[in-house]
Write a structure and sequence with these properties.
0% strand; mainly alpha
């Protein structure tokens, strides 16, 4: 069962890296076009993925 949680943790880590890139992109769009909805979506995605990263790492060990 530990291998399953390691796989889920790896997939979540990839999603987290993509969400961080999206957050940086949306921060630039916020500065240029004042599109705060996209920034809020990216920030929410990063916060949710960080939370799931903590939960999955606890389940992995």
């Amino acid at each position: 069962m530990g291998n399953f949680w390691n796989l889920v943790l790896t997939i979540n880590s990839v999603f987290l890296a993509c969400a961080c890139v999206f957050l940086v992109y949306s921060l630039g769009i916020l500065a240029i076009d004042f599109d705060w909805k996209q920034f809020l979506l990216a920030l929410t995605a990063v916060i949710v993925l960080i939370g799931t990263e903590m939960i999955f790492s606890a389940l992995c060990h």
